[in-house]
Amino acid sequence: MYTVAMLNVWSLFESEARTAKLVSRTAVAGILLAVTAYPLFNHKTWTYAIEGNREFSRFVSGSVRGLLTVVGISDRRDVARKEARLHVAAAELQGLPPRFWSGGSALFSGSTMPPHIFIFVSDATTRTRMGVYGYERDNTPNLKVFAEESLLYSHFYSASSATFQGVMAMFSGAYSGRRALMGDDIRTRLCTGLHEKGYRLMMAGIGYDIFETGKHCAPAEKMSAEGHLPADYDQIKKSLQSNPGQPHFVYQHVNGGHNPWQVAAEDEVYGKGKPDIYDAMLRVADRQFGDLIAFLKKEGIYDNSIVIFTADHGIGLGFHMDKSSYSNLYAQNTDIPFVMKIPGVAARNVTGHYTHVDLLPGLAEILGFSVAGPVAGYGLGLSPASAAIPDRCVFSIAEYKNTVAMNCQDGKKMIWNVEEKILHIYGADDPLEVRDLIDDYSEREVVDLARPLLEFVAAGRGTYIQ
Q: What is the pLDDT of residue 18?
């Protein structure tokens, strides 16, 4: 009956003139494709055929856009010319010059044991939905208390829209795109630096790929896949007791706001809608982070430990809510939390722009270890070199598309889908990114505005840009 109904709708257009039929059929084809896909992909937990949905959405949007252009009713021709200019400009650039980190002075050096390091990663967590960042719902009470004695980064961005690339950027100080094209020595450089300083590595939670396949991270002691179980803390306690003179690096990666979007009935405190459940999931992640803080204080190591709360990426919400969030780079996908407590460093709000690739050089400037080869990051603002970077722009990559984004300190945001030839520009006064400013700029102005992004694309040919 469903198929017959669709054929009946199609037949309504049979009496139209030839041009009108082509235009109408184009519009109806897009509607029918979307309606057909709805029962297949509109699942509460988002888990059904997510990759199929991603490819299907790309097919539909690309096909409908192309057909509309053919029949002469596309309103994006001017944008297409501007986007084409970017391809020409990028081809003429050589890319960003490589930058190297050679170690040097550090916050912690000498004969004393370096501080323990605990990195707590909440998956798919957008900072604008967190109470600690001013969100109306107080869903991060533990993190809010923690932030009072920590560095709160107000403009921290994910390097990618997917877990593997985001985590790999933290551990490598480099970007990667669709595939892990970097060598193992680069991919696990953080582990190499930690071993240099005598750290014992322990890993728990999502995203084991980088640890299992990286020879320098492989000696890490594994814990649960959930990342927050009581057995994990028993394991950490046992290791601390068995290795009293050795600093520990503990990486915990919890589900956070990742699909499936569901919580226990007692945690449905905000409602049953998707945004409500998401907010409740972040409340659960905050509670799990509180368990970590309580453990560290009970064991007497909290004051002398570096503790970091962050995320691997965000998730599509609000105006851009969709089911292919790992392919987009809107603010909800890239704006993530980063809160860090360092022994002896006073709490403050860090206003500069930083991203995942800054973690490796940031820990290097704290601990003083060397990093082999060039890095994309600058550090975490703890040294003069990384604290004052004028007019900095940071970048993000969508794993499943050749899509790149640029967030600049002057408030400008640009998203460029290199493969599908889509270009967006947003301003600082539009945090939800609902008003595209692309029509406000001439072709020349778009190229000038995109200069940092073009250099980033040129530098990534063959690695994070295919």
A: 40
> Which residue from 406, 336, 354 is spatially nearest to 128, judged by alpha carbons?
336
Q: Output the six-digit token pair for 248.
A: 């520990």
Other Cβ atoms less than 10 A from the Cβ of 413: the count is: 22
Q: What contacts 40, CB < 8 A, 6 or more positions away?
A: 48, 49, 52, 53
Distance, in Å, from the CA atom of 219 to the CA atom of 418, rounded to the nearest integer, reads 39
CA-closest candidate to residue 259, choices 49, 48, 46, 54: 46
CA of 310: how far to CAs of 143, 315, 435, in Å? Answer: 11, 14, 28
**Alpha carbons 257 and 280: distance in angstroms, whole number:** 9
DSSP conformational letter for 127: G
Cα separation, 442 vs 384, whole angstroms: 37
Measured CA to CA, the distance from residue 156 to residue 169 in angstroms comes to 14
**Alpha-carbon distance 363 to 368, whole Å?**
8
pLDDT digits (tens, 9 = 90+) for 130-188: 999 999 999 999 999 999 999 999 999 999 988 888 888 999 898 876 555 556 667 77
Cα distance between residue 194 and residue 359, in whole Å? 13
pTM here?
0.84
User: What is the gyration radius of the CA atoms in the chain, in angstroms?
Assistant: 24
Name the residue with tokens 């690309």: 62
- Per-residue pLDDT of 69-85, as tens digits, reads 555 554 455 688 898 88
Contacts of 346 (CB under 8 A, 6+ apart): none
Structure tokens at 123: 């998956």
**Which residue's entry shows tokens 């309580």?**
294
- What whole-number distance in Å separates Cα of residue 107 and Cα of residue 344? 9
| The token pair that represents 324 in the structure block | 């292919």
User: Is the CB of residue 301 less than 8 Å from the CB of residue 321?
Assistant: no
Q: What is the pLDDT of residue 7?
A: 34
From the DSSP assignment, how many helices (H) and strands (E) are in the chain?
16, 14
End-to-end Cα separation, the chain, in angstroms:
44
Collapse the DSSP code of 108 into the 3-class scheme (helix H, G, I; strand E, B; otherwise coil) and give the result: coil
79 contact partners, CB below 8 Å, separation of at least 6: 423, 438, 439
Task: Decide: helix, strand or coil at residue 316.
Answer: coil
Q: Is the pLDDT of residue 461 over 80?
A: no
User: Cα-flanking dihedrals φ and ψ of residue 349, to 5°?
Assistant: -95, 120
DSSP state of 310: E
Q: What is the edge-to-edge ordering of all strands in the sheet holding 393-398?
A: 393-398, 403-408, 413-417, 422-426
DSSP state of 113: P
**What SS3 state is found at 249?**
strand
Render pLDDT for 286-345 as a digit per residue (tens, 0 to 9): 999 999 999 999 999 999 999 999 999 998 776 666 545 667 899 999 999 999 999 999
Is the peptide bond between 260 and the residue preceding it cis, with omega within 30 degrees of 0?
Answer: yes
